[in-house]
Amino acid sequence: MKTIEAELIDAIRALGPVVVAFSGGVDSSVLAVAAGRALSPEDVLLATADSNSLADGELDHCRRLADEWGIDWVAAATDEFNDDRYLANEGDRCYWCKTALIDRLEPLAAVRSATVVLGVNTDDLGDHRPGQNAARDRGARFPLVDAGFTKADVRLLAKAWGLETWDRPAMPCLASRVPYGTKISVALLSQVDRAEAAIRALGFGEVRVRHYGDTARIEVPATEMARFVSAAAEIDAALRGVGYEYVTLDLAGLRSGNLNHALLL
Question: Phi then psi for 179, rounded to 5 degrees?
């Protein structure tokens, strides 16, 4: 019986050359390194969206990882901020964001006769993620899903392979901090980015600053709440410094995809 690692290698090898949509998180890191193991160097390209929805420093993080692994990498400038459907920030925002990414990756793949692949795992399939539909509609593939990987499987393999991203907190795009119906802008996402960076600078690794106009609703893991409260004065001053008038802590703790719940109401 094949190991889950072998299933992933075989799933990638069956596709042939690939362009990996590389965000620098644990899922796309495992996918990237697996592709490097499954295929010859000229058959793998990592591509990172160069977008205003990407947190500061993430592009350099992706470039550094690709250099360490010896895999070709490129920054792909996307144009979702020119798409009113994306800026409107309705429930299908992720569809148009991923469409903009695939628009940039398809020509890169065509030159290499390659398939675009994304680091989607089986746990991702149950959430509201219209971006997956956009990618699937355009022929992109999800090798982690094909190999049956859960998020826990991804982290275990990343740790076994010695990848520094094995326990890296998720870093979803900054637009995911903005409630649906609030129009997206570069200035708004920059404010969120600076707010989260200020909190991380105080030693909090995993944080979300949900943007509600002049109010920041902050989510941290439940285990960090006591320490967060002890740093309340510093956090309040830091977030006022980036433009928020009211700074609040969500007592329910950090929940991935939290704003998606509003779509169910």
Answer: -55, 140
20-61 confidence digits (pLDDT tens):
999 999 999 999 999 999 999 999 999 999 999 999 999 999
Read off the DSSP letter of residue 75.
E
How far lies 72's CA from each of 2, 8, 43, 51, 60, in Å? 29, 20, 9, 20, 14
For 217-232, the pLDDT digits (tens) are: 999 999 999 999 999 9
From the CA atom positions of the chain, what is the Rg in Å? 19
Sheet holding 115-118, edge to edge: 72-77, 44-50, 18-21, 115-118
Which residue in the block uniquely carries the two structure tokens 């690692």? 5
Q: 46: which 2 tokens?
A: 């990592």
Chain CA centroid to CA 187, Å: 20
SS (HEC) of 199-231: HHCCCCCCCEEEEECCEEEEECCHHHHHHHHHC
